[in-house]
Amino acid sequence: MKKIYSIIILSAVFTLSSIYSCSDNLDINTDPLAATSADPNAVLPFVFGEYTARKVSELGTRICDVSQYISNTYNSPNRGAVSGTLSGNTWGVWYVGMLGNLSLVKADAAAAGSSSNNVNGIATALMANTFLELTALWEDVPFTEALDGVNFPQPKFDDQETVLNGVVDLCDEAMALIDSHNTDGEFQITPASDMYYGGDIAKWRIFANSLKLRALMMLRSGGANVDAKINETLDQPLMTSNDQTAYVNYVGTPGAQNAMLTIVTAFFGPDNESQNVFGPGDPIDELLSGSGDPRWDLWVARNDLDAPGNDIFPDPETSVLSNNIIRADLPDVLMSPDEIDLYKAELALAGFAKAGSADTNYRNGVRNSIKWWGQDIPGVLATVSDADIDAYVNGLAAPTANDIYNEQFLAAFNRPILAWNHVRRNKIPVLDPPPATSISTILKRFTYPPDEIGNNPNTPANKQTDVPMWFENL
């Protein structure tokens, strides 16, 4: 079990986020707050905090109904209108707070030589993840010119295929750096500075290869010929067990608690089950109710009642997300092995021999997901025995492609960008647009922030928010 780290920098994160959203700092290459060098043990905790705060506090509480694993949230763009605040805050924090600081860490580590290759590898892997999520939100984004403000003060926007291929290259670079790190005189990353893995560089290498597979699956869905690169990832270590999960732990105290509960306690009352703020979306109800899947009891309270229905908040007569899920110390997961298991199951059905057995990988993915929520997640409140997990998993039929896609959606529960990616990539589960929407489908993309449009003439014209992204091609 991981140590629990208090995210004491969140108040600073929110302050900086508001600065970014209200100033010309959304020109991503002009940041008067930026330093010229970076101590990894000081900067990495800030970067982790920037990321998890934005992902949970704003993206998490506002777009988790887009993929409909939650029935409704406040100020959501699910009807087609993405607010400038939502897009601007996320854009600014991702580019300035994360990529800007990571580029400094990376440059300093490169200058220090092989004794800092561990630092360089971590920074490079985190940069890869950031660019992947940027393109998942906006499609075309600055990549090749993004972090060179001297030469490219108004960077061009690269197409999604270019960005995703760049993510793959960054993952390869991260692994090469980790493989060549010099343990003699190596820079010591303190456990408290590395909120994901406590400085365990072997786990970072596994993460980088697993992230590479995530990017390659999106490239393959877009029609790119990446089969050889997929086989490369299958030849390298990938996540297989929950002790390799990348997550940030919230200790649950004021200022360091999961924002899903903060919304409940700040505006309604003591907990979600009594206040009826977040309910399960229809796909969760349809996939889990009556299935015998233990996640139904772990995720949903009053689950003998009907789900609220998409675009509707729960009430005392409907099911509601349980306090096991909406709690102060719920960790924020970046990546877990069930995602990788289910990619391998998908690839096995597509004929990739190196992926192994579709059936075995499918069952491993379901088992890892249930074990995470019912055993391995820090602070678990409700548990499931190994015997009950085995009974359910062993009783599953051999999977079809749609079975695998549905499990990918379930395994991404409470991870809004990943769940949204799966729905857009697979078209499974089939989601109806919310009622009274301005678009013809579910939301497909964010619009560019107004400040970026004003600062950078290379910003593309906004497309309608129901226009599919390139990676949705297949």
UniProtKB/TrEMBL annotation:
- Keyword DNA damage recorded: no
Give the residue range of the signal peptide: 1-22
Sorted alphabetically, which keywords does the UniProt record give? Signal
Gene3D superfamilies with a match to the protein in the record: 1.25.40.390
Name of this protein: SusD/RagB family nutrient-binding outer membrane lipoprotein
Write the lineage as a comma-separated list.
Bacteria, Pseudomonadati, Bacteroidota, Flavobacteriia, Flavobacteriales
